[in-house]
Structure prediction request, 259 residues.
Amino acid sequence: MGLTAADIEDLRRARALLENPGLAARISDVVGSPIERGFGMLPKSWNAAVMNATRKAIEAALDVALRTLDPERAETTSNRWHKLAVGTTGAAGGAFGLAALAIELPLSTTIMLRSIAEIARSEGEDLGSAEARLQCVQVLALGGKSGHDDAAETGYFAARAAMAKAVSEAARYAAQQGAIARGAPAIVQLITQVASRFSITVSQKVAAQAVPVVGALGGALINTLFIDHFQDMARGHFIVRRLERVHGADQVRLVYKEL
Prediction:
C-alpha cells in the first residue's frame, strides 16, 4: 500500500526539518553576523578542546541511552523544559568560554538526549530495544555533514548510510552483552563516527559563543538554538522511521527524494 496523503504531508514536514539550513545559518541570523568571525577569536588549542569535549559528551550520551532511559515510563518533562535547561548551561559557556566546554557540553548533550528520546517515543519507537536507543544517539550525528558523504544523496540519507553499519553493530553488541563497554570495537567505532559529525555542529556553537558581544545571555540563546536544531533533527528522523515501519524503507526514501 502506498503512502496516504497524510503520510506524504508528514514526510514533507520531516524533509523540511532535515534538509533546511543548519545551525550555523540559524545562529548567524539571530546574532546578526557570520560565525566565521568567532573562529578567528578562538585560541590555537580550540580544536583539540572541542574534540575532547565532544567525545566525552557522546560517551555520556551512550551511558544515558543504554543504562538510564526508562522504556516503560513516559517522560513527564517537555521539550520546552529541555530548552530552558540547555539554555541555562549555555549561559555558563557564554560567560566562561572554551574553558567551560568540558563541563557544559556533556551536560547539555545528556539533556538533549532526554528530549530526543521523548520525541522518539512520541513517534512510536520502542525504547526498550538497544537499536531504538542508539537511534537517539545517532541523531547527534545529523546536521553535521562529512566529506565522505555521497554527493548524489540528500544530506539526511547520506548521514544515515554512513552511520548504518556502526549503529547496527553497536546495537547488536549491546543486545548481546546487556551492557556497554567503551573499549569494545563496536562501541569505539560508533563513538568515533558520531563524534566526527557532532563536533562540526559543536564547533559552530563554540565559535558563536567566542564573539565578545555574546556573553552569558547570548550563550544561553545559542544553546537554545543548539537543542532546537537537534530536536528538529530528531522529529524529522523519527517521522521517517515511523513511516518506514509501515511502508518499507525503499518506498519512503523514493517519495522523500521526489518531494
